[in-house]
User: Fold this.
Amino acid sequence: MSLNSHLEPVEPRRFSPFYLAPALAQAPLVALSGTILIAILVMALLAPWLAPHDPGLLSPLMRLKQASAQYPLGNDAYGRDLLSRVLYGARVSLGIGMGAALCSVAIGLTIGLLAGFIRWLDSIVMRVVDGFMAIPNVLLAITIVTLSGASLTTVLIAITVPEIPRIIRLVRAVVLTVREEPYVEAAIALGTSTPRILWRHLMPNTFAPLIVQGSYVCASAILTEAVLSFLGTGINPVTPSWGNIMADGRSYFRLRPELIFWPGVCLSLTILSINILGDALRDKLDPRLIKRGEGR
Amino acid sequence: MFGFILRRIFASIPVMFVVTVTIFMLLRLTPGDPASVIAGDNATAEQLARIRTQLGLDQPLQQQFFDWMWRLVHGDFGTSIISGTPVTTLIADRIEPTLSLALATITLSVIVAVPLGALAAARHGTWVDRAVIALSVLGFSIPVFVIGYGLIQIFAIELRWLPVQGFRSIRDGLAEFGTRMIMPTLALTFLYVALIARITRTSLLEVLGEDYIRTARAKGISERTVFMRHALRNAAVPIITVIGIGFALLVSGVVVTESVFNLPGVGRLTIDAVLARDYPVVQAVILLSSLLYVMINLAIDVIYVLVDPRIRY
Assistant:
């Protein structure tokens, strides 16, 4: 606690979506990333209407055909329409990304709050977290998927679990600094119940870093899903995902590089946009950077 | 000093314990019968029973755990269900491509990334700085396999400079080995350069704001000396840390890269084992890489104390 902290009234931090609007106009790259992400979201939501063909429809006559008016991006090894498959693939990627971000934040927040505030729990939780962080993400995810079958739910669980320890660490670090603040001491002195202190006084402080971390989790989850699918250990190959499409295209890569190119471009653009938005959010919200005068 | 090293080693024991318990429980907590998942749909009752015995699933849980630990301490990491070969032999046969790829990647990344990050910090706020930041965001965002296929398309298919895929042992000649390692290393290096350049820049910027840098400048020392002697050396700790933490990232990257470039390494071994449901192999690889992670980070912590006189525990 710094010496003069009780002299300066601390304004509670409030969030508003409009808070970012003027900044957005000054940062064309951020605005572009936002636009790309919205476009991909629209692709995912409207896939059934946008797709010219059924993504699973096999047409043996059209195997590995070049792009044509009827099939704008050409066909894959089973004659399926590449464009339709890429459009549907956006659903899996964004679904997994957002699902993993929400689940890992919800679970990590709960455990992190408790670990940061309840001292005896802290050392146990942190040992477990350290252990989990030692296990390489992709290997852990692959093992979970292998052992419990490759459904969308297991893939989501397999991708979420390795992300939770990082969230716990972050939330705990915030709680450890905030719990020494005078207003928390005051709340304890007034006899406020522990759940209420956690909920009302500690949790709001974690929102800013969690929004940033959540965006990174989302990007990393999309990447991990693609890696799993690409390695053949992800969701069932019948469901088109960008990783699956690339995995299918691997054997025909020299003949039809588009089979890798288009899903690869969509995947990279999505992750890139999320990362740029995440960085922009961090620069706006991270008080540590602002204090250092380093917010660029 | 010696006391610290001992304490640090003791502190990593619970971490290793959590790792082993987690990996042990993965198979046992799986809903359903793991033996039937591993055996596949067409397994006979005999095959199921055999796999159950082989994995020790017919024993009580704590018995299984202690048996497993006992064998681990004696260097027995299990036997492949498919080939019956000890996992350690399988890994030893496949370690060369993996180790070459990992070492080449780390070396190249450090050589490229530390100067890049330092340059960005020295030219803070200029276009050079922004270019390095942009490069590092790109490195985080483009998946290794997308970069890999991009490299293959350009250098192997269009320019025909390098062989498309495959691996030759270094014993077959340096040229044969080298030409096949260039693209995998480049593909994987991109991510690592992003990681290390970013942390180098951030930690240098932090150090450059310290009082002793101002003092050094006030003494009239040339900016070059201030940067090399005072700033870069003090920024070294976080840079070394991130290389250690990045090890887990490297493992995942190696698995993917080996797949893209058809390298017969440990990563390929793991994926083949996963697809064949050869669980003991998967379990051993994940356990060994996690333990290696703990030990690398332990070694890095010890190196700090030896290198950095400010760190006293």
Observations:
- Chain A has a mean pLDDT of 82.
- The longest helix of chain A spans residues 194-231.
- Chain A touches chain B through 45 residues (CB under 8 Å).
